[in-house]
Every structure is written in C-alpha cells, then in structure tokens.
Amino acid sequence: MTNIYTTKKLEKIIHKKIENNNLVDENNLGTWNANVFYVAKKKCLLFVNSKTFFSFVIPRFSMKNIDKLHELFIENFYNQLLYEKIIVDYDSLCSKIGKITFNSTNNNRKIIGILTYNIEKMNYFKYEYPVFNASVIREMTEKLNLTPFEQLGWKHPYEEMEALLSNNIES
C-alpha cells in the first residue's frame, strides 16, 4: 500500500478521496506528499517521494479525473521514470505501489519544504517555455530531479529513485 499525504490546499480539492486512516503501512518505496499548483491557469498536482525527493507532476488535473487519480498517479510516475531514462517494468511497478490511499497532511516539514521549493522552481522555469504540454512539464520536472539535496548527501533525486527501484523491483 502506498500512502500519499496531501497538503491542506490539495485536501480541499480532493476531499472525496481523503481517508482518515490512522494505520500507516509504508511500503519499500516510501510515502509520498502532494500539493497543487497552477501553470497557465491549469491545475497540476506535484508529488514528492519522502525517501528520495523524486518528483513528478500530473498536469491539467480536473475534478472529472478524481475517480482516476490512482491510474493517473501510476501512469505519470511511470512516464516520468521513462523520461529520465530509469527503466522499470510497468507491471512490477504497479504491483509494488499497490493500493494508493490519500491521507491528510502528516506535517512532515522537510517534505513540505521540498514541495514548496519545487513549486517555486516550477514557477521560475515556466518563463522559459512559450507553450505548456505534458512533455514540457516532464522536462521541467526532470530539472527538479537534477537538483542535489544536502539531506541526500548531495545526490540527485533521480539517482536515489533509480537505486531504490533497482533494490525493490525487477526490471
């Protein structure tokens, strides 16, 4: 089971999906935190892994997609991995992620800080692009994953995610 903790801002938008579950069962890929931000007046959801700080975005999210949020999470995560040349089997990834539950915030200040930092960087990057589509969002997110963090020993999030996946999923 994969737990995703939402910020209060995102919780107001997807309140139907929030589960009040006090039992937290963390899988080997860790938990995720999510927030909402806007690019060109379109709602985007930013997800950050708590172990690796690896980020990906669900672009152009709308409320009609709320019932497909589980599939959107896996699909966009997988596509971001492929974009960053991290090869992993789709079925193995799906089985490792398992059931996805959305929870209220866990008040993890470190990850909330990373979310805020990434949103600010995305807002900065958007001035470099005249048009926004899924491939531009992936390119912007790749730049986020190329940012080294002191908490990771100055490693990049994509390196940490690649190592985590290689230890937990067969390619």
Could you describe the 3D structure shown?
By secondary structure, this protein is an alpha/beta fold. 41% of the residues lie in helices and 17% in strands. The chain has a single domain (2-168), classed as Ribonuclease H-like superfamily/Ribonuclease H (Nucleotidyltransferase, domain 5), CATH 3.30.420.10. The protein is built from six helices and five strands. The protein is globular and about 45 Å long. The two termini are 20 Å apart.
Short description:
The chain is an alpha/beta fold and 171 residues long.
What string, H for helix and E for strand, traces the elements in order? Answer: EHEEEHHEHHH
Oligomer: single chain
The side-by-side strand order for the widest beta sheet comes to 4-3-2-1-5
CATH superfamily: Ribonuclease H-like superfamily/Ribonuclease H
Per-chain topology:
Elements: E1 2-6, H1 8-13, E2 32-39, E3 42-49, E4 55-58, H2 69-83, H3 90-97, E5 100-103, H4 109-125, H5 134-145, H6 157-168
Parallel strand pairs: 1-2, 1-5
Antiparallel strand pairs: 2-3, 3-4
